[in-house]
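Predict structure. Chain length: 215.
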Amino acid sequence: MTSETIYVALIEDNPHVRQGWELVLNDAPQMKVIGAYKSCEDALASPAIGEADVVLMDIGLPGMSGIEGVRRLKERYPQQVIVMCTVHEDDDKIFDALCAGAVGYLLKKTAPSDLIRALHEAYSGGSPMTPTVARKVISFFQKSPVDSVELSEKEQQILQAMAQGKTYAVIADALCLSVDGVYYHIRHIYEKLQVHSRAEAVAVGIKKRLIQPPR
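Prediction complete.
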């Protein structure tokens, strides 16, 4: 574990869970909670959120979802380390969160000692995941790859923008397309990559080196 103090922000709407995280982390060595918020909107409105080294965030939040919150925080504070802690184990939520910029994915049943260890790991450059989540990620990348795929230049640009968490309206504006035009290209991307969601498309695109991983 690092000898430096890690400043942590919490975003969780359940007050009991939020207070529990705060007590556990403030009691841990080299760790201090500097903000605890019930929504992404509250966090983004607080100047203190920018001082956090690590953000621990739920996905199912009132208003803005945790996944959109990750995108907003990474746009504003690119060096910030974000770890999701949620009840959701479905593949789309996992890949959406990771593609949005989260470096770790934990389940709320994670033991306090494992939570502390995971945040230290994330701060030190690791990607902590609950074992069942890690298995899902590994399983996805071990699947037989789609046969050789070629995307047009426009499709590659759109897929790269999707990997960066940009909205379809922003993509349309950047590429001088209508939003319907963006959807048209996305349908072709999904068909070529044999996927059914944005997260899967980004994951396959990265796996096949059609696009660069988001930074």
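Summary: The domain at 6-141 is CATH 3.40.50.2300 (Rossmann fold).
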